[in-house]
């Protein structure tokens, strides 16, 4: 469910027409619905209301500080993967005692910043990293709270690029080495082992992989607890899928029904890290048609958004529905490739898509673009990044301005030898 619906022939976000927003900020632009994010957060949070838990929103999905503040106000924490994300989370008012830090390559500077900020814990992905956190904590005279991330070797049945819990993955510590790693961690004077973490992949559309992974983690937690380790947190990661076209992912309620009975046996506080499921269907990318081009055996619709604005189709061959902002039932349907202006064959938003043939100047909405959309945007081909707009009822709030050409060269300089 989302809040981008037609009123008559015109696409709206909540109570505002998309056309009206575009008149103010131009194209391409990202538009997010406050109501959708709010509803999705509470769908998740409420589903687990009978279990002590923290929802640590995986902010790499959408890290605009306006979006973060919205979620923080509803009680969300944050799952961060870099010092930059920590900076954003703190700026947005996410309480540090609800921030968890994941990622395989945390630098000593990032570790220091996180310890200084007194975050809830690090999710540790290797023994080398554990050693590094220990050293930094020792130098600061602190004890770092950590969970070890376990790789449970579960196939999440999703795209290989977003599958993270298989043996061949770079993420986490292999399940059969876990006991040894926990024992080692427990002996480090400036490390406090408080939890077990796992995250098996993204865009999961079945509950079984979650259940299987949680069972493995639970059995590890019980062993650790029986050996006297004070494991107080169980982090089950994120990964719940959304509907891009015809997927039917479980509702958070269904997920809760399947895993709550298991989670209750852990005698731990539960941490969950949903990203995509909170914001994915809360955002669209609006783009304008520039040209129609007749290829040798293909029709191209060339639009003003490109892979630098929305990378998912190029990176994962991901499907995004594309809808006209103004519907016209009499438009003939054609099969087209929707492509951007970037000088790469991989620059497309849709391939072989049946859609009403758009005309130059028409606006198109690329749906389900709220997660891993803007956060993956780049300046490739020196294209300024798009604005981001948050809509609440009939309120249009620009939460990021369009970049200017001057922004593109900020920090660059021409060496003196050329002057
Ligand atoms: C990316 C990520 C998430 C969020 O995944 P979604 O599929 O967006 O819910 C959660 N935890 C970790 C460790 C991640 O890397």
Element layout with pairings:
Layout: E1 4-7, E2 10-13, E3 16-17, H1 18-25, E4 29-33, H2 34-47, E5 53-58, H3 65-73, E6 77-80, H4 83-91, E7 99-101, H5 108-116, E8 121-124, H6 127-140, E9 144-151, E10 173-174, H7 178-187, E11 191-197, H8 208-226, E12 233-235, H9 252-263, E13 269-272, H10 276-279, E14 283-294, E15 299-303, H11 312-316, E16 322-324, E17 333-339, E18 348-356, E19 363-366, E20 388-392, E21 395-400, H12 405-408
Parallel strand pairs: 4-20, 5-6, 5-13, 6-7, 7-8, 8-9, 9-10, 9-11, 11-12, 12-13, 15-17
Antiparallel strand pairs: 1-2, 2-3, 4-14, 14-15, 14-19, 16-19, 17-18, 20-21
Bound molecules: pyridoxal-5'-phosphate.
Residues 58, 60-61, 79, 102, 199, 202, 237-240, 273-277, 371 line the site of pyridoxal-5'-phosphate (PLP).
